[in-house]
Amino acid sequence: MTAPLALAGCHIVSKDSYWDDAKAAKLDAEPTGLSDERANFPFLGVRVPETPGERVIGATILHVFGSSPAARAGLEANDEVRSIGGSPVRSADDVRAALRGVAPLTSLVYAREGQEHEVRVSLVRWADYVRERRRRIFSEAAYSGTSLPFFFNYVTRELTPEFVNAYYGASVKEPVLVYEDLDIFPLWYSGISVWRRERLVVWDSSRSQFVAWPMRYTTDGQERTQDLNESIPAPPAGARDL
Questions:
Q1: How far apart are CA 157 and CA 20, in angstroms?
Q2: Which helix (H) or strand (E) holds 22?
Q3: Those residues with Cβ within 8 angstroms of residue 141's Cβ, 6 or more apart along the chain or in another chain
Q4: 204/119 Cα distance (integer angstroms)
Q5: Which of 35, 50, 95, 93 has its CA nearest to residue 70?
Q6: Residue closest to 118 by CA, chosen among 154, 144, 79, 92
Q7: What is the value of pTM for the model shown?
Q8: Which of 118, 175, 196, 205 could form a disulfide with 158 if both were Cys (CB 3.0 to 4.6 A apart)?
Q9: Number of other residues whose CB lies within 10 A of the CB of residue 188
Q10: Using CA atoms, how far apart are residues 135 and 214, in angstroms rounded to an integer?
């Protein structure tokens, strides 16, 4: 009787990577953590000051988000956005108001080292950018692992500080953990272990297995996307992402 039970347990805990499950899931089915208004609002991909300061015209770009419409249009940090769709801008409120009233494909005038340039920008929805950023997390998180054969196997996936800076506009000194998988007493190369705990930080959720027990999920509150808010510093005060 013991052998069938052991085999049944091994079948249940055979390797079933939470990372692979999440990566294979349709991103459209994932929550974005955004309100309906913000999810559908046009996203340019810049961080600008809340207040205009002493400038007569132009909102200084503090950060350009990776793979955003602004980045694809060639904008860089320290450029000055002077108009969007023909509307002059000086502050975050001006940029937001201009974005609200323009078509998805619009003109943008910016200044770099005193010289004005006009480009065409193809805006996206905030929700679409969040999904694209999450897709890149799954494709670009760096894998690392350590193990002691037959005793444990520990795997992590992390985002580099350069990725965090580009896509979140945040400065971190160490890589940011987005996934970890701990297997206790694994059968080497079989994908089977006695106990496993997987934590998918980007979804703020985890699950664990023990021999023939059913799969159990544990979350802090409901399963949701945190976008790593606890691991990545918030935007600086006095600035807004638009």
A1: 12
A2: helix 18-24
A3: 157, 158, 159, 178, 179
A4: 39
A5: 95
A6: 79
A7: 0.77
A8: 175
A9: 10
A10: 29
Within the chain, strands assigned E span 42-43, 46-49, 59-60, 63-64, 80-84, 87-88, 105-112, 115-122, 124-125, 142-148, 152-159, 176-187, 192-200, 205-210, 216-219, 239-241
Structure tokens at 157: 């996936």
| Single-letter amino acid code for the residue at 152 | F
pLDDT in tens, the chain (242 residues): 333 333 333 333 444 566 776 666 645 544 456 667 778 899 999 999 988 766 668 899 999 999 999 999 999 999 999 999 999 999 899 999 999 989 999 999 999 998 999 999 999 998 888 888 888 888 888 888 888 877 888 888 899 999 999 998 988 899 988 888 887 877 765 566 777 777 777 665 555 555 433 343 333 333 333 446 566 777 778 899 99
User: Would you mind telling me the total number of residues written for the chain in this entry?
Assistant: 242
Report the CATH fold assignment for 45-122: Pdz3 Domain (2.30.42)
Find out whether 204 and 219 touch, Cβ atoms under 8 Å: yes
